[in-house]
Design brief:
By secondary structure, the protein is an alpha/beta fold. It has two domains: 72 residues, membrane protein fhac (Ubiquitin-like (UB roll), Roll), CATH 3.10.20; 125 residues, Cell division protein FtsQ/DivIB (Rossmann fold), CATH 3.40.50.11690. It is elongated, with a radius of gyration of 29 Å.
Length: 230
Amino acid sequence: MKWIFRVLFICLITFIGIKIKTEFLTKDIFNVKAVNISPISKSLEEDILPLKNKILGKNIYDIDIDFLDKMLKNDIRIKNVDVEKEGLNTLSIKIDEREVAYYAQIKNNLYLVDSDGVIFGRLNEQKMKDLPIFNIRDKKEIENYMKIFEKIDTGSLKDLISQVYTKDDHCISLILTDGTVIKTNLDVTREKYSIGETLYLDLIKNKKIEYLDLRFKDFIIKCSGDKNEK
């Protein structure tokens, strides 16, 4: 007899569940009336607007949060996203948008690069900032440049870099804002960048520096004259 009562109880619970889903949860009170999106750039906001309009009016329990999360992450401009249901009829979308840290020049086009080395847009999508430009032929070069910037991130040298390009297999050139060329490669240590920065900042007080080579045991410096020379 016990198994009969158990079966009847399960059937009753199932029936109540179906009734709730088909009659109660489908009421208009659960239709999405607001989609709150965190502050984002104008271009991304315009692209997400059709999705927002598509969600409005839908039953909040019919929305697949995981699918929506993955779909938004497919946009290369979005670094991270968090989608949550709030209350009976509100959806919250918090977006962590990629921020430009560098520019990448590929042929005649300039692209946006974030601090992770990810290319996520074109220059015309944002107002240009005073940031280093990577001259690259392939994405592997971006990885190399990022490794170099990780080593000089603690000093002021990074803020003085205007352009970066690969001269050959043994030399990567960092062009500073005053035209000085820092010759380096992937083997140069963090300590050597720090010493090279100090040396550079001391020399430019009185000298015009053509280049500073960090690739060897000793620092190789070429000066083109006194700073006050005409």
